[in-house]
Specification:
The protein is mainly alpha-helical. Helices cover 79% and strands 0% of the residues. This is YggT family protein.
């Protein structure tokens, strides 16, 4: 049970790092430091986008339009920090206290 809890927390932490990498790469793309025509950069950016965009697009639909600033990554990080981590810890704590092993 403890191993499953650790694996789930590691997967959430990996998603957080992927989200941060996506944000950094999109900023580098926006400032013109990296070029999307570079095949290596495009493949990395496309892979990260396929992982992150299904989570961020519903949040973008809820948030108001703020011009050129995207607050969806910040909202996702805050939701993970204040909702997902405590929920996972509480669920596994409840499972651990109710098991009869």
């Amino acid at each position: 049970m403890v191993a499953l809890h650790a694996i789930i927390l590691m997967l959430i932490q990996a998603f957080v790092w992927i989200l941060l990498a996506y944000c950094i790469l999109s900023m580098l793309l926006g400032f013109g430091i990296l070029d999307i025509r570079n095949r290596f950069f495009y493949s990395i950016f496309n892979t990260l986008a396929k992982i992150v965009e299904p989570v961020m697009s519903p949040i973008r639909n809820i948030l108001p339009n703020t011009g050129g600033i995207d607050f969806a990554p910040m909202v996702v990080l805050l939701l993970i920090q204040f909702l997902v981590y405590p929920a996972v810890n509480r669920i596994f704590f409840m499972l651990a206290t109710q098991s009869s092993f």
